[in-house]
Amino acid sequence: MKISFYGLVILCLLEILVRVFHLYKDTPSRMIDDYGVEKWVPNQTGYCVTGNRRQNVGKYRINSSGFNSYREFEPTEYNFELALIGDSFIEGFHQDYDKSIGKILESKLPGVIVYEFGYAGYDLASEFHLLNTYDSIFNKIDKIVIYLDYPDDLKRDNYSVSRERLRLESGVFRMMKQSKLLVYTQNIGLLGVPINSLSYLKTMISKILMPDKHTIPSEMISVRSNEDIHFRNFKMLWETQANSKEKIMFLIDRASFPKSLQLYFQTQKIQVIDYGIPFEYAEKPVTLIYDQHWNSYGRELVSQAIADQVNLR
Amino acid sequence: MLFNSLVFFIFLPIVFTIYWGFGRWKLKIQNLFLLVASYVFYGWWDYRFLSLIMLSTLVDYLIGQGMESATRKFRRKAYLWISILFNLGMLGFFKYYNFFVESLSVSLQLLGFQESSLWTLNILLPVGISFYTFQTLSYSLDIYKGKLKPTRDFIAFATFVSFFPQLVAGPIERASNLLPQINTKRTFSYAQAADGLKLILWGLFKKVAIADSLAVIVDDVFLNYADYSGSTLALGLIFFSFQIYGDFSGYSDISIGTAKLFGIELMSNFRFPYFSRNISEFWHRWHVSLSTWFRDYLYIPLGGSREGRVKAVRNIFIIFLVSGFWHGANWTFLIWGGIHASLYLPVFLMGKNRSYVGEHLGHGSLITNFLDFLKLLQTFILVTLSWTYFRAENLASANGYLGRLFGNLGIEEYHHPRGYRMIDYFILLGIFVLYEYLIRHNERKPVPFRNKVLRLWIYTLLVLGLLLFYDSGSDRSFIYFQF
């Protein structure tokens, strides 16, 4: 009894310490709107903390449109507006929201308003779905820059709503989020140990209870190269989903793309911004130490590359 | 099964609950249950090697019985030699066979013979073999010397050999300490169990927060030593000193703490060795169960220091070299043993080898005197330098490391391989050393303070330290498992 009581008090003290020093990561709530667009629940603020000992801290602000930005998205017919669409690199939880690529870009392009539509997990299919769903907004925007990461953003050729990430917003996970100590242990990977062990046990049990009866011989599986699949996915999405093609520019690291896709960009006159070149000649590291997102120097280089292209055109 | 694994933290409460929870068991059932639990614990790693423990248990049990029934000294001696040859033979085969074959091959080549094929074997070293063979050997030796009466209870003896908290990395228990406890029915003591939990927590902190967090840096520095300057190499060595201490003493604390949960007291293995003022004191505080084993079963039988200085010097070199070789089949460990013998010798010749026995640094006062502090620093530096040979993969690397350490005295800023702030580690070690200094009077009481609130905060901060320095990316075993 005494040990249990001590244990409980220690847990309470730990909860306090974790809160006081803000060791945990605030994760905003997610949602899927009526049009099937996955984004953050509007109007939330918090800190995104990385690493056991606050190695990286970024403040976020989810605006009324459900994206991390210091701006509200109110495009007009008379201003020059640029939309920046992409995954976590554009979402930018690893930096303060008021030091984002969009903000840097605005300082480099006086008079241009930048709207950042970043959401971790977006791929090209979800980005085109966003563009088509909110066409009333994007029609007023003059330039659209889509960050395209090869091959991760080209794994599928059509959009379907995935509720996988939203699972974390319900049931036990929602309750667990109330304890910052639990959130912290999950962030540092400690909670993953029992969870992984349980899922391993579950897999083992299900394998024993229901062994695979039919195994397809490997020679019967038609294997296409991944490169072909990614190329086909891009082609399909570009040809069927992309409207206002002349407005769209892709932000890419050209060297990471296969020759076939590079050629396709050329023949189709698809506009690209290659941030790979300034990264190659960078004088210092362009990514953060604790994860592979761009650091402030990397963001500066990316913004400059975008600004140069926009000015050029 | 690792002490710092999830499996162990599921295993331990289950075994603990069954052990104490199911009524008042008879002694035999208590022992049988501990034996089964120990075999599960060991078999989790590799059940095939359970047969080795079982064989070792059976042989030494029968030898014990044989020695008791033998009336003539010759027969008793014969039994003892069977035990020695069996245990050392098993250890030699699994641990040293390849080393001797390779060394023989090199020697033959140096003499001009052509060695066409190496007779090395692809053998896996059974975890803990160096520990449990020494434990069973001590049983036979104690019976032979008449210090111990052999037990007739086979289950009790098997439990003594394979008691899971200390099976794989010690402390190397003496039959005279552990067997009587196993032969006595245990009753639950809240105070003992609570002490055990505190030691487990402290041991985990030393293992996870100190040893494992420093290991990343040490591995990097030792692997790429040729690219670093002297300041980084010095940092790597100092961090290794703390890594190996945190790792092994952390293991010992968890081991002693776990045994306490089952009503058994194991011997202390570490007594704040880095607060030693000379090498002799260091060896009275570092891996105590091994150094006393060598003292009692090797140094004293060889004549110790009773038969003149020359023989005493010879005996000192023998035990340090054997102790080094016990750690592993590599010339680096022999050199390490030799260095410690050389460092011990002047202390011995000046008659200072027992100067600080049973006395703590800064005895009776909070702050130690400056001279003692200088002696401490000198001992720490010497021990730390000697660790180079312990940690390096081979002699060439160790020599290269030391050569670069002294030959390239530049100072450079070191960056953590995973990008963490280095200042965190300096703060951690600073606090750790200060705290160890505060609790230096009793290694078995890591939180000796009377104030309840203070104690609660210390427990909380220890857990917080574990969380702050826990690294999910690395799954680290204990260093001494390889010995």
Strand order of the largest sheet of chain A: 6-5-7-8-9
Number of strands of chain B: 0
Please outline the major beta sheet of chain B.
none
Oligomer: heterodimer
Gross morphology of chain B:
globular
Distance between the termini of chain A: 74 Å
Instruction: Please name the CATH architecture of chain A.
Output: 3-Layer(aba) Sandwich
How much β-strand is present in the residues of chain B? under 5%
Largest sheet of chain A: 5 strands, parallel
Order of helices and strands of chain A: HEEEEEHHEHHEHHHHEHEHH
Structural commentary:
The complex is a heterodimer of chains A (313) and B (483). By secondary structure, chain A is an alpha/beta fold. Chain A has a single domain (10-164, 224-312), classed as SGNH hydrolase (Rossmann fold, 3-Layer(aba) Sandwich). Helix content of chain A is 40%, strand content 15%. Chain A is built from 12 helices and 9 strands. Chain A has helices at residues 2-20, 88-91, 101-108, 124-133, 135-138, 171-176, 180-187, 192-209, 226-241, 259-267, 276-280, 296-312, and strands spanning 30-32, 38-40, 44-50, 56-62, 80-86, 112-118, 143-147, 248-252, 271-274. Helices cover 67% and strands 0% of the residues of chain B. In chain B, α4 runs antiparallel to α5 (129-145). Chain B has 2 domains: 6-104 and 125-188, no CATH class; 191-277 and 356-482, no CATH class. The relative contact order of chain B is 0.10. Chain A binds chain B through residues 2-3, 6, 9-10, 13-14, 17, 23, 51-53, 55, 184-185, 188-190, 192-194, 197, 289-290, and chain B through 6, 190, 193-194, 197, 418-421, 424, 456-457, 459-460, 463-464, 467-473.
